[in-house]
Design goal:
This protein is α/β, with parallel strands linked by helices. It is globular and about 70 Å long.
Amino acid sequence: MIYLDYQATTPLAPEAREAMLPWLGGPGTSGFANPHSPHRAGRAAAAAVEAAREQVASLLPSGGRVIFTSGATEAINLAMRGCGARSLAVSAIEHAAVLDTAATIDPAVAILPVSEEGVVAGDVAFAAGTGLVAVMQVNNEIGTIQPVEALAERAHAAGALFLCDAVQGAGKLAPPASADMIAISAHKFYGPKGIGALWLRDGLNLAPLIHGGGQEHGLRSGTLSPMLCAGFGAAAALSQARIEEDAAHVAALWARARAILNRWTLNGSATLRWHGNLNLRLESLDVARLMSDLRDVAFSAGSACASGSGRPSHVLRALGLSDGAAKGSIRLGFGRYTELRELEDACARIDVAAAAQGV
């Protein structure tokens, strides 16, 4: 299997796996201890959690705190619901976790358009009374990088808070330093599934979503998993150490894939993007047939969260593409553990299979 779906999830880094193993627990070990217990084993588990918190915090701006969650979806819900804003503005290409949550809070939510290249204008004006603006750092479907610093400044000038979904950018790009809240997820940068975090600027208070023991600074109740925290922390530390190396690797992969698939049309900006995401289209392409013909190549027809819905991508439609063009698009995602030769093989086979359809 050639894996080219890094936006959906990334392979677990060996270093993250090693960090997790002592906390799997079992008879004769203390790794299973509850990190909220006062005894020695519990305190050791708590220390592992706090060490991981510091590692994750190193990926994020100073002047804030990290709240562990079950993933970015929970972090986004905590931020959007907990901040108390009732008038919202979000970009047209946000993840469903933002779009759907915004619609339940503010049925009249302002939708910020994007250009044909998939980028929100940095000088957009927000309506008076807007309480929260949410724009992602890197789009999960087309990889475009948004001007989040400029947008955060505009939001603050309008008296609004700024939330950034940095799921696809964390560990790859510098963090959005002007944001008030940042949501990230471990499994998007080589950590384990089932854990994410909300970074919250100092001085900003939220109402909790989940009530109970108040384990996470009173904002998120429930017993933390030292195993997941340790893997998250190790993945964060590794991504920070390898950020330049990883970026150079994906840039080389991008250039080679683009050269092989040169007759395909790129969706989104060629320059304002994370190069580990390649979203392409061919007119009249039957993507379902293409995926069936290439069952040993894992790629996507869009967001994994919307797979199987049969609906054209809301992101591609926001670029102005027709339903047909959107449905004729594929997404290739690659990263740290993708080898050049396997990417070359996959791209060549994808192009041949598409040509066999007469497109």
